[in-house]
Amino acid sequence: MDTEAKPSERDRSCAPPTGSQEGSRFSRIPDRLTASMSWRRTAVAGAICSVFVLLLGAFVVQPFLIPSGSMEPTLRVGDRVLVNKLAYDFGSAPQRGDVVVFDGTGSFVQEAPEENPVTGLLHKAAASVGLAEPAQTDYVKRVVGVGGDRVVCCDRRGRIEVNGTAVDEGYLYPGDAPSEVRFDVIVPQGTLWMMGDHRGNSRDSRDHLGEPGGGMVPVDKVIGRVDWIGLPWGRMGSLPDGAAVAGARATGGSGG
Question: How many CB atoms lie within 10 A of CB 214?
Answer without folding.
Answer: 17
